[in-house]
Request: fold
Amino acid sequence: MKIILIQDVAGFGNKNEIREAKLGYWRNFLLPRKLAVLATPELIKKAEELKKEEFEKKSHEDAKIEQALKQLGEKGLSISCQSDEKGSLFAGIGAEEISEKIKEKSGLEILPKKIKIKKPIKEIGSHEVEIGEVVLKVEVLKEEKQKPKRKQSVGKKKEKTA
Reply:
């Protein structure tokens, strides 16, 4: 039976997609969760129009994001982290940290799964990261440590009793 998906369904299809499904799967899983409706000629036309609009909107957003990433790529991105004397980081830098830093700098929300790191970032220095077709230069800097201030003990000292 033909159905139209109302929402993305993991392992099955995406929103506004027209799919062929078995009756039991539709009746027991998709319908109770309101994930799909039966495909009628009117709904098929509407789903195709929505899909086309969504594609145009997504391509426009992708172009805008890519342009902003190119501007950010020219400037580069710098991240400060704690490291030892040799320049090895205490904690490696992953796609999540890079995504957060991009959001701080430019306001772009990039999913960590779209960030491709060639080799793990575990040392101070310059590294290259790919986001789509844009190559972003990430500069890892040593974070300056601030020495903790010692607290002066106030009050009486305990005396040893024999």
DSSP finds three helices and nine strands in the chain.
